[in-house]
Design a protein that fits this description.
This protein is mainly alpha-helical. The protein has helices at 20-49, 53-72, 83-117, 120-144, 160-187, 193-220, 225-236, 239-252, 257-281, 286-306; strands at 10-11, 80-81. It has a two-stranded parallel ribbon.
Length: 307
Amino acid sequence: MHNGNSTELEHDSGERPVPRLFLVGSLIALAAFIWLVSLIWPTLEARADELTTLQIGLLASFVAGLMTAVGAIPIFFLRRISQSVEDAMMGFGAGVMLSATAFELVLPSVEHAELQYGGVGMAILVLSVGMALGGGALLALHKLVPHEHFHIGPQSGADPAKIRRVWLFIFAIALHNLPEGLAVGVGFGGDDVSDGITLAIAIGLQNIPEGLVVAIALLSLGYSRWAALGVTLLTGLVQPIGGLIGAGAITLMEFLLPWGLAFAAGAMLFVISHEIIPESHRKGHEAQATVGVLVGFVALLAIDLAL
C-alpha cells in the first residue's frame, strides 16, 4: 500500500499569496454551480417527490458522502497546495454548513414546533432543548471516542506516532460525517423537499475540501493515490448511515420532526465550532478562512433562494 512518493503532494513550506486566477476561477465555478442547480431544480424536485422520505434521505446523504472522493481527485494532478488555500476552503465549508444550519434546520424546527405545539414559547423550548441534546451528544462522543485535531503537513519518513495521529485525524473526519448525514435525513421529514436538497448540497460542498485534506494526509505517509482516494471515500460513506437513521426516525415517528431538526442543528453547530473553524484558523490565515466563511454562507443562501 505504501510507495516512495510520500512528498509528491505537500503543503508549501513558505507561504505564498493565493493566485488571483484560482480565486476568480473558484468564484466563477461556484456561480456556475448555483445557476446549474436553479436550472435543473424543477426536474430534480419532480423526481424527489416520487421517492419516500427514507429513500430520498438515504440517496441524498449517499451522494453528499461521495463528494469526499470528488474532493480527493486533485491528488492525481496537483503537486502542491498552499496552506492559505486549504484554510480558505475549510472556511468555505464552515460557511456553507452554518448557512444550512440556520435556514434548513433551525428555522424549520421552529416552524414545525410552533404548528405542533401551538405557541412560540414552546417552539423556542423545543429548539433549545433539541440543540443542547445534539451538541451535548457530539461533545460526549468526542470525549469518549479517541480522535485527533490534526493539521496535515509534510511527513516523509513518518514514524508510528505520526501515522497514528493521521489515522486518528481521519477517524475524526468520519466521526463528524455521521451527524451531517443525520441532518440530511431529517431534513427530508418536512413538506418542503427543497430543505433536504439544500442540506445535501451544503454537506456535499463542505465534503470537497475535507476530502482533499484527508487524501493529502495519507499521501504524506506514503500511501498510493488510489489508496488515499479509497480511504477518503470510506470516510464520506459514513454519511448515508446517518441519513438512514435520521430519515428512518422521522418516518416512524413524525412528531419527532422539530426535535430531530433541532438535534441535527446542535450537532452541526458543534462540528462547525469545535472542528472546522478552529482547524481553518490554526495556521495564521484567519483572514482567508473568514472570507471563505462569508462566501460559503452567501453561496448556500443563494442556492436556497434559487430553489
